[in-house]
Every structure is written in C-alpha cells, then in structure tokens.
From TrEMBL:
Domain HTH TFE/IIEalpha-type: 3-86
Keyword Transcription regulation carried by entry: yes
GO BP annotations, alphabetical order: regulation of DNA-templated transcription; transcription initiation at RNA polymerase II promoter
Annotated organism of origin: Thermofilum adornatum
The gene coding this protein: tfe
Name of the protein in its database record: Transcription factor E
Keyword terms of this UniProt record: DNA-binding, Transcription, Transcription regulation
Subunit-structure text: Monomer. Interaction with RNA polymerase subunits RpoF and RpoE is necessary for Tfe stimulatory transcription activity. Able to interact with Tbp and RNA polymerase in the absence of DNA promoter. Interacts both with the preinitiation and elongation complexes.
Family according to the record: Belongs to the TFE family.
Phylogenetic classification of the source organism: Archaea, Thermoproteota, Thermoprotei, Thermofilales, Thermofilaceae
InterPro entries xrefs: ArsR-like_HTH (IPR011991), TF_E_archaea (IPR016481), TFE (IPR039997), TFIIE/TFIIEa_HTH (IPR017919), TFIIE_asu (IPR002853), TFIIEa/SarR/Rpc3_HTH_dom (IPR024550), WH-like_DNA-bd_sf (IPR036388), WH_DNA-bd_sf (IPR036390)
Alphabetized GO MF terms: DNA binding
PROSITE patterns per UniProt: HTH_TFE_IIE
One Pfam assignment: TFIIE_alpha
C-alpha cells in the first residue's frame, strides 16, 4: 500500500467512508478546491467542509488559501499531507486520540439541534440565538439524536487504540 492509500484507510476508520473518498480524490490531484471536490463527489458543501476540517484537525490533509480575484473571496485548495507516514502515524495517533476524545466528550455533553433541510448542526445556545430556525434556510430546527455519532466516535477511538502503526525498524 502506498502512503496515500494508508492515509485514506485511516481517514475511513476515523471519519467514515466519505472521508476515504475525499482522500482518494485528493491523492489523484496535486491540489483541488472545495468546489471541485463537491462537484466530483456530488457531495453537500456543508458536509464536505465539515469532513475536510476533521481531516485537517487530524493532520491528514493540508490546504492552501488563495484569493479568487473574480469573486473576491478566499478559495481553499486541498492536498494530502506530505509528512512521512511513520512520523505521521506514530505522532498523530496520540493527537488524533486526543481530538477524538475531546469530540466524544463534546458530543456526550451536547444538546444538539439539526436543520432537517440542509443538515447543519447547532448547539443549544446557537439554536436559541437563531430562534430555533436555521439561519441558512429558515427551516425549524429539530432536536438531534447523536447516539449513533457517539457510538461511531467510540468505535474509532477503540480502533485507533488497537492500531499499531508501524513496527520499529529491525523487528
Ligand atoms: Zn438549514
């Protein structure tokens, strides 16, 4: 397996199948913008951005920010990290675990609302601020059952804990 294939597998274990698809797409490009990724994978922009942020937090991807002169906004161009796999896996295992455990405790504490139309998620404080309607599309927010997500994070933590990245050389 190439380094990129290993990273794609790791992304799938931690963040799911869509994360893997993104990683594979990235590995076939020098760099690629959010818009292009969303188009290629026929993926919702908000969901894509969430996954890209997760992958970035886990140090599996990098981005370059460039101002688009036509629209005047910044565009983000994504690529797979170029850090050596051995370093990445050994060092980031702990970091990724920390992130996942933080994520888990946030999920466990969070009272979450979700927009039934665009899927955006809001904390109870945000939901209150927005009057329980989605600021993106005006839909009434619904309470969100995050037990499935909590189970997925727990599984990812367990998988990562059981995962021995690379045996030290000579063994
Ligand atoms: Zn919405």
């Amino acid at each position: 397996m190439s380094q990129n294939e290993v990273l794609a597998e790791l992304a799938e274990k931690i963040f799911g199948e869509k994360a893997k698809k993104i990683m594979i797409l990235l590995s076939n490009h020098v760099e690629i913008s959010d818009d292009e990724i969303a188009k290629e994978l026929d993926m919702d922009q908000a969901e894509l951005r969430k996954i890209l942020n997760d992958l970035f937090e886990a140090r599996l991807v990098k981005y370059r920010r460039a101002r688009d002169e036509n629209i005047g906004w910044y565009k983000y161009y994504w690529r797979i990290t170029d850090e050596p796999l051995e370093v990445l896996l050994n060092d980031r295992k702990r970091l990724t675990l920390t992130i996942l455990e933080k994520l888990l405790s946030l999920e466990e504490q969070a009272e979450i609302y979700v927009c039934p139309s665009c899927g955006a998620r809001y904390s109870v404080v945000e939901a209150e601020d927005y009057g329980y309607t989605c600021p993106n599309c005006g839909e009434v927010l619904e309470p969100y059952d995050n037990s499935k997500r909590i189970r997925k994070i727990r599984e990812a933590i367990q998988a990562l804990k059981n995962y021995e990245p690379i045996a030290s050389s000579g063994s």
